[in-house]
Amino acid sequence: MCQYSADDGTPGDWHLVNLGSRAVGGAALVIAEMTDVSREGRITRGCTGMYTAEHVAAWKRIVDFVHAASPARIALQLAHAGRKGSTRRLWEGADEPLAEGNWPLISASAIPYHPHSQVPKAMDREDMSRVREQFVSAARMAEQAGFDMLELHMAHGYLLASFISPLTNVRTDDYGGSAANRARYPLEVFDAVRSVWPSARPMSVKISATDWAEGGLDFDEAVGFARALREHGCDIVTVSTGQTVPDQKPEYGRLYQTPFSDRIRCDAEIPTMTVGGIASYDDVNSILAAGRADLCVLARGHLYDPYWTRHAAYEQGWDLPWPDQYASVKGFTRGSTRKD
Predict the structure, then answer these.
(1) b/e sequence 46-68, b meaning 16+ C-beta within 10 Å
(2) Which fold does the domain 13-329 belong to in CATH?
């Protein structure tokens, strides 16, 4: 979950506490917020980045804490905002363009997000090569910072996703038209990053399985893209949906995205992470027991309760070890009257 609290891309104390508390709270894998591969690739001025030496050092501080204070693993999610960049922070007006100080935007096609949003430049080959190398450079920096896993963000209408959806890609060259052509550039970026990311460390990709909009991505195409990712060496896919266009009509509800994870896992034969509308401990158990996903990822649930996993373990009768610093909590339960 983006925190929009970085200083020119550099994560600080807020990010250390935000991510570190989830690791201490029992999460097995902590995935850092969408982190951009260039300054002009940010959503907002407060977005984190991985494009300077200062960023490497700041992220390493967080990674080192997670590794020292918990058994958790930590992943970095790399992205480029594309046409959804140069906007205000979430609490100032989500996806609304800056009043001033905007930077140029690029996308698969020259289609603005809102009618009043900035019109992005349709990427030419030079743009595509430059951005691909920015992803490669960021991946190398992520290795230097010690991240255990890397995820490429190809969902929610950001730059790489803008090639995949027919709503945002109306190109007439080799990167537009058919589903295979629309997948060409995202797969090119994936291949370039996979070639420099250590083979022993996993890579995932986050996708939107549907745009929730007429004329948008066909789910069969989403399955095909996930299958292509598997063939290109992707280890696991995070299956999300939507956020491609502002007039989407999602069908929200409990576990509303898990059916997409379920089918992609079966039809594309690739492990999946499911996200969205997951709140209860029983939800997680039922998803995993039924084989609808390999991992359950909680975003808002973990914002609400950083110790969600510890509390789940307690309710399920599992003795999850506490850090030494919290030794005094052993034997404590809600409503306990112990004074020692």
Answers:
(1) bbbbbbeeebbebbebbbebbee
(2) TIM Barrel (3.20.20)
